[in-house]
Task: inverse folding
């Protein structure tokens, strides 16, 4: 069954690519947005999870939580569609769609761990090497279940100059990359399961990854929160926060959670609220 599913998903991925690449980016974004609004109507449990998360995290009334959740679904699908298009765009054309708030020296020559989240077109963070050619960029990568799509996604990211480190076995290589002055991205906003540390996030304890702080501590570099927000039709803003220099992995994770909270509150409709981030958490 898995082989059949993988074959079908690969065929869909390969068929969608040429169609998306043939359309203007704004059209791709708007078509994705329409798909997201349709998905919101039939999402069932995921819609309920999103509205519940928004209500409890932001203190939003049910009507406001529903509005934010609907916008979140629309933005998610719009940005997922845009990711397929931006993969093949020339850097100069893509730059027309981007603004930056990244202080000079943020990525530095001494290395840093980029703490990122599933917000806006987060795949753009994997393309930073195209816009900052003097910096070596890498990312901790978890293999996709479909090996055919995984191979193609990896190849696309590596073409941009991004060095990938498998989460399952390349940790020491990632530390060496940081020690050599590289900027290493880690997505750190999802539930970390039994391997995480219970820390507060929007006022509730939740399993949180300490990997950014662990890597930063080993390499003696800071953790740098970086976020992507949607600012218009196929337009995005990439912002770097204040560097975190906490002593332990748990302290770095707590500071990172606070930075994520700040960025999510600023653009609540851009975050992946449908993820069950607080599974098992109390009131």
Result:
């Amino acid at each position: 069954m898995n082989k059949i599913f993988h074959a079908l998903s690969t065929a869909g991925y390969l068929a969608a690519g040429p169609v998306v690449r043939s359309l203007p980016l704004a059209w791709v974004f708007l078509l994705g947005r329409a798909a997201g609004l349709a998905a919101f109507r039939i999402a069932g449990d995921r819609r309920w999870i999103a509205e519940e998360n928004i209500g409890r995290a932001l203190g939003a009334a049910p009507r406001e939580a529903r509005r934010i959740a609907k916008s979140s679904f629309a933005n998610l699908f719009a940005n997922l569609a845009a990711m397929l298009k931006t993969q093949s765009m020339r850097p100069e054309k893509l730059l027309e769609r981007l603004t930056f708030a990244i202080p000079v020296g943020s990525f530095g020559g001494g290395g840093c761990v980029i703490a990122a989240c599933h917000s806006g077109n987060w795949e753009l963070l994997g393309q930073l090497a195209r816009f900052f050619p003097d910096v070596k960029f890498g990312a901790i990568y978890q293999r996709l279940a479909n090996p055919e799509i995984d191979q193609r996604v990896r190849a696309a990211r590596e073409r941009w100059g991004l060095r990938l480190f498998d989460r399952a076995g390349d940790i020491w290589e990632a530390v060496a990359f940081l020690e050599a002055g590289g900027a290493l991205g880690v997505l750190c906003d999802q539930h970390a399961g039994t391997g995480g540390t219970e820390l507060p996030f929007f006022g509730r304890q939740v399993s949180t990854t300490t990997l950014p702080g662990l890597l930063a501590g080993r390499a003696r570099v800071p953790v740098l929160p970086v976020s992507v927000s949607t600012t218009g039709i196929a337009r995005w803003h990439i912002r770097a926060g204040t560097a975190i220099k906490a002593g332990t992995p748990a302290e770095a994770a707590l500071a990172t959670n606070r930075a994520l909270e700040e960025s999510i509150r600023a653009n609540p409709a851009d975050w992946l609220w449908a993820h069950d981030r607080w599974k098992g958490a109390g009131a």
Remarks:
- The chain has one domain: 2-270.
